[in-house]
Amino acid sequence: MKKIILGVSGSISAYKAAEILREFQKKGWSVKVVMTENATEFISPITFLALSGEKVIVGQFKDLEYGLEHIRLCDEAEALLVAPATANIIAKFAHGIADDFLSSLYLACKKPVFVAPAMNEGMLLHPATQRNLEILKKDGVHIIEPEEGYLACEEHGKGRLTEPAKIVFEVLSALGKEMKGLKVLVTAGATREFMDSVRFISNPSSGKQGIAIAEEAAYMGADVTLLLSSSSKEKTFVKTERFETLEDLRAGIKKHDFDILFMAAAVGDFRPSRRYEGKIRRGKNITLELESTPDLLREIAPNKKSGQIIVAFAAETDDLLEKGKKKLFEKGADLIFVNPVGRGRGFESDTNQGYLIFRDGNIKELPESSKRDIARKIIEATISIVRG
Predict the structure, then answer these.
(1) Is residue 380 packed enough to be buried (19+ CB in 10 Å), middle (13-18) or exposed (0-12)?
(2) Which residues face 33 on adjacent strands?
């Protein structure tokens, strides 16, 4: 199990460190907590002991067991994260002051260091704090920028600790190695095709599977861009661009270079052949004629550059393997994931199942599990193709 050291300094937002700890645990990481003396005024070490199952280090020489632990503690961990980081601890780091365990640990740590500032806006924007942050950046420290919001001083401004899930996302995506250097483009969610100014044809896709793929690729170190339907309400910290219609999606794909393209969006097969201006009023009978939409996969796959990998997706109600194989070979993708939809399966659900079909004829069944687990398996299969 991978380990991270979580440093907690004396900020009112120290309680959020408990949420950060939990978020790392959800990702399968263990957490070792180091607190400054001031941090214990805001949250008890017992809280972190109960959550992490490991003894919490406080102070420099309070516990002789950890007297020289700063020399080797980082050797056991993947990284050091300080969240929240006060102006005081940032200043100590920037100027090499080691008068407590956390600042001594920082100087002894040879692993990646992440700092998430949290303070009053005036303190954050003060020239001294800004200089100190610039020093840390030049020293290779990753600064997780604070957010704007309501602060403890009862003012609205910048300085609020970034939300725990985003902090964990930024740390893990920076530490990822399996897909480092790869540009990944993921499409997710449903297209909308309008019949008038307010009505459209679409499908129930939530974009959850595509988002899970984008996030897992980011955790593996890839440079990820997510093209997400404007109809999706799912939250993600991946770099995201929105699309609405098929033409929007087509334009979004064309403007991005990529090493791997995951075509997980549920693109409508039909659209109204005519779009009425304004809103069609009730009482007026109309005939709605549909036309087939352009086949984006058929357009993109045959024209891909050497070395590019395209992963297709197919949502089917029957004959999954037969239809999946046909789509894979007819449209020129490198791999396809075909899954059943309807009767509560696939669209909008938190679980998925299906088959991975490779061009060499190999088929891998993916039993029902979370879309996060399915995403990992799809990515692992894709990496095997990249590596040859």
Answers:
(1) middle
(2) 6
pLDDT-based confidence at 157, cuts 50/70/90?
low
* Catalytic residue positions, numbered: 153
- Are 1 and 29 in contact, with CB atoms under 8 Å apart? yes
pLDDT in tens, 334-354: 999 999 986 666 677 899 999
Please report the DSSP string for 272-317 in residue order: ESS--SS-PPTT------EEEPP-HHHHHGGGPPTT-EEEEEEEES
Q: Are strands 79-85 and 113-117 parallel, antiparallel or unpaired?
A: parallel
The single-letter code of the amino acid at 148 is E
When the candidates are 3.40.50.300, 3.20.20.80, 3.40.50.620, 3.40.50.1950, the CATH number that belongs to 3-175 is: 3.40.50.1950
Compute how many other C-beta atoms are within 10 angstroms of the C-beta atom of residue 281: 7
Asked: is 183-386 a CATH 3.40.50.10300 domain? The reply is: yes
Q: Report, in this order, helix, strand and coil percent for the chain, each rounded to 5.
A: 35, 25, 40
Assigned token pair, 28: 């399968």
Supply the DSSP symbol for 40.
Answer: G
Tell me the whole-structure pTM to 2 decimals.
0.91
Give CA–CA dist 140/134, Å, rounded: 10
Which one, of 9, 47, 53, lies nearest residue 29 by Cα? Answer: 53
Contacts of residue 182, defined as CB under 8 A and 6 or more positions apart, other chains included, come to 221, 222, 223, 259, 260, 386
Which pLDDT value is given to residue 64? Answer: 46
CA distance between the termini of the chain: 28
Cα–Cα distance measured from residue 328 to residue 357, given in angstroms and rounded to the nearest whole number: 8
Rounded (10°) angle between helices 127-138 and 87-95 = 50
> Mean pLDDT in the chain?
92
